[in-house]
Structure formats: C-alpha cells, structure tokens
Amino acid sequence: MSQNRVALVTGAGRGIGAGIARRLASDGLDLALVDLTEEALSDTASAVEASGRRVVRIGADVSDRDSILAAADRALDELGRLDVMVNNAGVALVGPVTEVKPEDLERLWRINVNGVLWGIQAAAAAFRKQIDRGDERVVRKIINASSIAGHDGFPMLGPYSATKFAVRALTQAAARELADEQITVNAYCPGVVGTDMWVEIDQAFADLTGAAVGETYDKFVGGIALGRAQTPEDVAAFVSYLASTDSDYMTGQAGLIDGGLVFR
Ligand code: ADP
C-alpha cells in the first residue's frame, strides 16, 4: 500500500484543475483525476506520470452523486488511501438575472453546487472508511472551488455568483460539522484566470452586450492590483498549501487568490 498522500481532483482535464493536479503531483502526491470523460484526462495524466507519481483516471459527472461516491472509492481502492479531495469542476453562465432560463440555472446549480456537495459527501465517506479501518490519524482535507464571484455579485454573473456564494456556505458548514473528525474544509477563490472558461465568459459578454471580443476580459484584468491575469499555476500554488500539512490548523476559509481584485 502506498505511503504517498493521495488527492482526488475533479475537473482535472484542463484549466485550473489540470494545474492543481500537476502541482500536487510535483508536491509528491499520487492523483485520482476526474473529468467528464477519461480521454479528457490524457494530458494531465501524462504530466502526473512524468512527475513519477501514480495516477488513476476516472470519467465521471460530479453532478451525479453515485458517480462521485464511486470515484472516491476507486481512489481509495486503487491508490490505497485518500487524503485530499479537490472539488474543482465547475461551469460558467453569463446573463442578466432577469433573463436566466430555468434549464440553464438548473444545470449550473447541479454542477457548481450539487457537485461540490456530493464531492464533500464522497470525501467524508472515504475519509471515514480509513478512520474505521484504523488508518493513521491525520488531518484530511476537502478543498472547494469558489471564486471572486463568491464574494461579490458581478453584473451578468449573478447566478454564477450565487453558486459560488453557496460553495462558501457549504464550506463553512461542513468545516464545522467535520472538524471533530480532523477533516478540514476550505475554498479557493480565483479571479481572472486565462483559461478556456474565461474565453467562453468573454465571448458570452460580447454576444449579449455588444462588447468587443476581449473587452470584458481586459476590463477585469485592468481592475487587478497586481496588473496581470493569473495562471492556473498561481491558483495551484495556493491549493498546494491548502492540501499540505502546513494548513492543518486552517478550516472554513475561502481564500481569495486573485492578484488583488476583490478585497475582503
Ligand atoms: P476553469 O477556469 O475553472 O479551469 P474550465 O472550463 O477551463 O474552467 O475547466 C473546467 C473543467 O471541469 C473541464 O475540464 C470540464 O470538462 C470539467 N467539468 C465541467 N463540468 C463537469 C462535470 N459535471 N463533471 C466533471 N467535470 C466537469
């Protein structure tokens, strides 16, 4: 059985999740990777293997409770333990609050909120199995994706903001509920990351408001105190801390890692 710590990262196929998986592998963790399809995980899995770490690829939809519970079980079975669950997978939705369609809201909520909630349940269940079988008593960690939009309601991003506020609420409540089992629950709140998601958000603003392509992205980046958009690696460095034993005493927090865009 592996003595390496093990993390499961959802939405690890691209963007921030891929950055987190690569970083945790270089930190020495073995990785279970989840995305909608196994194929989507090829590049990330290769990078993890190149770091000399073991990897399990799992095609699963985080909004499907049974699938994500099974994914955490597979990580435990195939990698021997599970120490860290990163509930990273998410989708964006752009549009005015007054015009959001029920089916779009439903999908957004199922992935961004229900997906995190099922991820918390899956992690807690896997962590409890290890405690029940007498594994070493260590602090185990749940790390959830919130956003700057989880601290502030941006125009055209109202429903998305609502899901990210909800992630902070779940993070706080679960942190209190699970603390006596030595499980910490924290969130990370990125700002403007140059990923495909931001390309899609920028394009949606252009389609809906008549803004030029790139204008919305540039406007957001213009508000960043440190003067540049962030990279998945910037986010992953903070998640690395949240996943490490250095953060064992921290729980219930939702840390902004945004270059100074939202101050709380
Ligand atoms: P970000 O900027 O947050 O990294 P991306 O859209 O670039 O956003 O990446 C999000 C990742 O999450 C993608 O790889 C996507 O396939 C994955 N993802 C989206 N929805 C789900 C879902 N329901 N289940 C699992 N993975 C998902």
UniProtKB/TrEMBL annotation:
A single BP term in Gene Ontology: fatty acid biosynthetic process
**InterPro entries annotated for this entry?**
23BDH (IPR014007), NAD(P)-bd_dom_sf (IPR036291), Sc_DH/Rdtase_CS (IPR020904), SDR_fam (IPR002347)
Any GO molecular function: diacetyl reductase ((S)-acetoin forming) (NAD+) activity
| Active site per UniProt | 160 (proton acceptor)
Enzyme Commission designation: 1.1.1.304
Q: Which reaction does it catalyse?
A: (S)-acetoin + NAD(+) = diacetyl + NADH + H(+)
What does the UniProt keyword field contain? NAD, Oxidoreductase
Which residues are involved in binding NAD(+)?
35, 61-62, 88, 160, 164, 190-195
> Pfam families, from UniProt?
adh_short
Q: Enzyme class, one word?
A: oxidoreductase
SUPFAM superfamilies the UniProt entry points to: NAD(P)-binding Rossmann-fold domains (SSF51735)
Q: NCBIfam families of this UniProt entry? A: 23BDH
Protein family membership: Belongs to the short-chain dehydrogenases/reductases (SDR) family.
* Stated name of the protein: diacetyl reductase [(S)-acetoin forming]
